[in-house]
Fold this sequence. Notes:
Blueprint: H1 29-32, H2 35-51, H3 54-57, H4 71-76, H5 88-99, H6 102-138, H7 150-181, H8 184-193, H9 206-209, H10 218-236, H11 239-243, H12 256-261, H13 276-285, H14 294-313, H15 318-330, H16 340-378, H17 381-395, E1 396-398, E2 404-406, E3 414-415, E4 418-419, H18 427-430, E5 445-450, E6 465-470, E7 483-491, E8 497-498, E9 502-504, E10 509-512, E11 516-517, E12 521-528, E13 535-536, E14 540-542
Amino acid sequence: xxxxxxxAALTAAMLLWSAAPACAQDHTLAQAISDQAQRxxxxxxxxxxxxxxxxxxxxxPPGKVADYTxxxxxxxxxxxxxxxxxxxxxxxxxxxxxxxxxAQLASLKAVATGQVGLINAYGYKRFALMxxxxxxxxxxxxAGSPGLSLAAVKDASRSLYLIDGQISFDRAVLYADIxxxxxxxxxxxxxxxxxxxxGSWPDITGDQVRDRLRGLSHDQSVAVMTYxxxxxxxxxxxxxxxxxxxxxxxxxxxxxxxxxxxxxxxxEGYSISQSLTADAGSALCDSRLGYVxxxxxxxxxxxxxxxxxxxxxxxxxxxxxxxxxxxxxxSLVTPDPPSAAHLAQVRAYVLARSAVYGxxxxxxxxxxxxxxxxxxxxxxxxxRAKLAALRAQILCGTYADGTPFDFTLCxxxxxxxxxxxxxxxxxxxVANTDFLFAAPSLPAKLAVAVQPxxxxxxxxxxxxVRIAVLDAAGNVVTTATNVVSLNLGINRTGAKLRGVTSVxxxxxxxxxxxxxxxxxxxxxxxxxxxxLQTVDSAPFQVK
Length: 543
């Protein structure tokens, strides 16, 4: 029998950002996007990336895909503070699976089976970006490339978000259909759970629902459990809950989830510290802790400033895109099935906004990876060793039963949280990621990297003059080996420049040790190279 329930009387007010939250807000979107939360979260990702590897980067909770149903909000705001217990999803999902009719469960299984291919495609396609970011940070990108290609990364991110949008739409259609079919008893059961925490929910165990999942593959079972959890969080929540995300929702390519979750893998009931991200992330953004210098820590403050417009402050931003998508999906929850025209309209809108969301996120990911690469290059060996020790401190320990663990080194890649045993499956995504890098720069002009200092007649100019070979954008062409020649520019005394005056550039820099001038006066040096724009030094005195 079809009855009224929480979403049956969906009103325009539910489509507004001001929709009332489902529960007391310990964690809010305002807190998640705050400068402090973003700074420590990005720094934590930087710590994971600099001390980790591609295998660790690949670990990614499946709940981060198509996350417009408020489950993260439900988890982060559990009144009993059990949201980050590894059994939280199971506890929610088991209760939902327990009350679903056979027909409702069959619908859930059918969509899960149909979506596994898309879900896995999303997971595998992430590897190309992860590998490119790893190459950038490790300094193993294509020779001569100045860095990541913004356009290529945005396009790759856009394609991922389009998959995410389709998955989100299909799930919303399914959930709305199931809500419409619920009996009064089912609605009463869920209502009794709404607003209460882990400890107040019925104690339904896996044994009581295991038979209902019999015959499903691992991937299908994970999907069904995820959908069951979503069914409750969307029912119990609000638009605000749907839009909400935790601070680490973006920047998911760098290994932070592994560093946070690895000890919990396969250990039901393990609780993850909610302060770990802020505590460990501070190592890279607070120089007072002794891991980085003030200048290095400032990189993450600058990164927070650089990403702000894309995240929430710009005319087009990610929070608004999420709001638009979440509101469109909630419009499917109506007492009567939506028309085919409305379904088509919502799908097109969700995909269009997902594309925008993906491009904005892709641009920010370039910023994240570039900053991490810059930081890694600046670290001393002692700093790297200290950060590696911090990683080991986080990923080593002892379980409650006395069993020691050490997850410092990740040795296997993951598809979400499942180990990939057939590495050939990754080849199409990681064999060649050059397309995600900008084309190698071509030498275009010269610049004085180290100006000549005042000196005495016949004495060597010290430090040695250095001339950089630049591309048209002003970046050093690190593959350049052009022969650069120096001559006197301003020379009113008829002096001669002594020493080796023609030098081949090494990694784009020509260095001229031992130069001297044989008469006193005021001079400039002029640098030339075949086919490149010349440059003059600043004036200097010889006494």
